[in-house]
Amino acid sequence: MNRLSQWLFDPVPLARVVLFRRFVYAFVIIDILLLHTSGFRHGWADPVWYQPLIMGEWLNIPAANVPQVMILKWGTVLVAAFALTGRFPRVSGLVVAVGWIWYQYVAFAYGKVDHDRGDFVIALVVLPLIGMAATAGPAGDRTRSELAGFAFRAMQLAAIATYFLSAWAKVRFGGWEWVNSATITRAVIRRGTFIGDWLLEIPWSLHAFQWVLFSAEMLAPVIFFVGEKWRRRMVAAWFVFHAATYSVITIAFWPHLVMMLAFLPLEEYRDRAVARWNSWRGGDSGEPEPQVKTPASPA
After folding, report:
1. Contact by Cβ (8 Å): 262, 156
2. pLDDT of residue 174
3. Helix, strand counts (H, E) of the chain
4. Long-range contacts of 186-195 (CB under 8 A, 24+ apart)
5. What residues have CB less than 8 Å from 89, skipping those under 6 apart?
6. CA pair distance 111, 36, nearest whole angstrom
7. Out of the domains of life, which is the source (predicted)?
8. Does position 119 have pLDDT exceeding 60, yes or no?
9. 241 pLDDT exceeds 60?
């Protein structure tokens, strides 16, 4: 139990919390305004098409109307913009979580539910828990927090569960025919690109891709049993995979990609980027900078 507790509460720098929070709340704004806009349009939909989800049945949520979607959309965007400043992170984070989840509910209560947004809900829920700790210093604060470590571990587990449960659902509902039939071929025909059309001329490639996808999703939990270097490589491989998927069938799991950043040392990448930017601005000529002497300050 001690080893499990140490793993769950493995401390992370507060700088990582600050940077990751900015990615999350920036995505909320982009998602509502540009990526997933059906929730707003459903305010004008006929209530006859409303089909309450489990959450709606538990909370007795009525069908959406125009004032509701207007408040959810613009209210969540404004609070998310405020949350980017880092002020009152607990309150602003909680409001963003409620607003975004409710907005997604309005979108999905009239049609299919996208599974790529389930793990992002976890990020919105756990980030406010460490809000006060995350504002303990600037983005470069290296103070390590166990509470932040638990939040990041929860987000990592949710992200990997998305992969593993997706593979399990494929064989649970589709059977082994999912990987042995023309599943990807059908997707390419419906919404493929010129790259997908080219792969249609090589049928075995799409069949093999189905097995590669299924195997990768089933083996996703391995990421918790490898070293830091291989963990970063696995995350990079997943990003490459999603880029390839988008290039073939134009499907992207945008919120899930944000969640995968929870595995990366964002503060290290930020420091490297700042150092390179300062070096470029300073026009590094290879010569040492002159030393400026200043009088010693009194004790």
Report:
1. yes
2. 85
3. 16, 2
4. 187/249, 187/251, 188/248, 188/249, 191/249, 191/250, 191/251, 192/248, 192/249, 192/250, 193/247, 193/248, 193/249, 193/250, 195/247, 195/248
5. 21, 83, 127, 128, 131, 132, 134, 135
6. 13
7. Bacteria
8. yes
9. yes
Inform me whether the pLDDT recorded for 4 exceeds 80: yes
Which is nearest to 150 in space by CA: 133, 174, 130, 179?
130
Residue whose pair of structure tokens reads 């790259």 in the numeric block:
195
Sequence-distant (6+) residues with CB within 8 A of 114 are 108
Confidence check: pLDDT of 261 > 90: yes
Residue 223 DSSP label: G
- Cβ-Cβ contacts under 8 Å for 113 (sequence gap 6 or more): 53
Give the amino acid at 30. Answer: I
What ranges do the domains of the chain cover? 9-161
Residue 83, token pair as written in the block: 């949350």
Does 138 or 32 have the greater pLDDT score? 32
Residue partners of 133: CB distance under 8 A and separation at least 6: 14, 17, 145, 147, 148
pTM of the model: 0.86
Counting Cα atoms < 13 Å in the Cβ hemisphere of 135 gives: 14
**Average confidence (pLDDT) over 143-152:** 91
CB 210 within 8 A of CB 171: no
CA-CA distance, 267 to 80, in Å (whole number)? Answer: 22
Q: What is the DSSP secondary structure assignment for residue 159, as one 8-state letter?
A: H
